[in-house]
Amino acid sequence: MGARSTSEMRACLISRMRRQIGLVTVRAMARHRLARAPYIGVERRSVEMRAELLRREQLSIHTTRAQSGGLPVHAFYSYQAFHSRGWTARDGGGG
């Protein structure tokens, strides 16, 4: 890195880490706010009903997975398609 001393190197590394953590935090907050934007002006009861509907859908998906051995059917077939051609992750999945 070209630091003249260990304390300078330490300061540089700490500065870089703080910058990265700051960026991650800002991006997460932006995602949070953007995810909430569609709910501006909507009654709370409507939002709660939507959340309940999504919970029920997720529950039915998990129930279906449990009945099928825990593996979603589309995941099984995509796995089969990928590995039947002899591709590996190293190959990038290309043909």
Name the shape in a single word.
Answer: flat
* Helix-and-strand structural type: mainly alpha
The unreliable regions are: none
Please count the helical segments: 3
- Into how many domains do the coordinates divide? 1
The main pleated sheet reads as:
none
Mean pLDDT: 79
Helix content: over 70%
Number of β-strand runs: 0
Q: What is the beta-strand fraction? A: under 5%
Distance between the termini: 41 Å
Order of helices and strands: HHH
Radius of gyration from the CA trace? 24 Å
Quickly list its features.
95 residues; mainly alpha; 3 helices
Q: How are the elements arranged and paired?
A:
Blueprint: H1 6-36, H2 44-67, H3 73-84
Folded structure, characterized:
This protein is an all-alpha fold and 95 residues long. The chain has one domain. The protein is built from 3 helices and no strands. The model has no long low-confidence stretch (mean pLDDT 79).
Short recap of the structure:
With about 100 residues, the protein is mainly α. It has helices at about 5-35, 45-65, 75-85. It is flat, with a radius of gyration of 24 Å.
